[in-house]
Design a protein that fits this description.
Elements lengths: L55 E11 L7 E16 L2 E14 L2 E6 L2 E10 L8 E10 L14 E11 L5 E11 L15 E11 L4 E11 L8 E14 L2 E12 L4 E10 L1
Antiparallel strand pairs: 1-2, 1-13, 2-3, 3-4, 3-5, 5-6, 6-7, 7-8, 8-9, 9-10, 10-11, 11-12, 12-13
Amino acid sequence: MRYRLTNAWSARCRGFPARRAALVTLMSVTALPVPVARAQAPLTVDDAAVTERHRRHVELFVQAAKLPVRVRPATAQHTTVLAFAYGVGPRVEVGFDVPLIVLVRSGDATAGGGDLNLTAKWVVREPTDSTATRLAVSGAIELPTGNAARGFGSGVADYDVNFVAEWPHSVGGTLRANAGIQFAGNTLTGLVGIPDRGVVVSAGGSGTWSIDSRASIGLEVTGYQGRSRIAADRELRAQGALVLLVTDDAAVAVSLQRGWFASPLLLAQLGCVLDF
């Protein structure tokens, strides 16, 4: 998952390393010169912006997912994700995110912490005018801190890199594209994702548009492909989201996602974003 609020919707969603937010998603920074809070989430596609120098960016999202048949007897997964980013320079940020996972199996629920994800992003090209394309690259290392035997962790370390491009749209929105590769590990967060270990490629695109100075909508499509051609080694997701700017530095967001292959059949998210 990366949102920096440069207007009702602007920046992030838990990066999009070649993995979950990582395998593909995207967002945008609209052209409206309004307040600064930040809002890329809850979309998965990353934007090409970073947290301002010496400022902090925090996201807290609750996700409810209906799981695919292949992971039964588990039928649902509820995940609370805390993400943090810090601007260390004019074009660089570092951060982390960690999930708390609740798995529902045959009516019984068990909870546990997931894998810790460490992230960094660098804005490679900062446009000199509002019509130019902005480029960024991000990297992530996910450490196997969750209990894999109980389904909360992947059991392996993940290493991935993601490339981001964003540009303004003629009708007043912003378009974004991500392309990534995971070199090792798998894409699991709890029971959500591709379990096979190895190289995974990802791609995605998104668009965001302002309804007014305080509200924005976003749409995205993302996909992941593992080493084999079987359905369990592939993901496809489509998501729509609404972001509301509460103050200049805080926003709330909600989204609904439909998934195919190894992706959750349905996934709903509700959360908040804060910059300080």
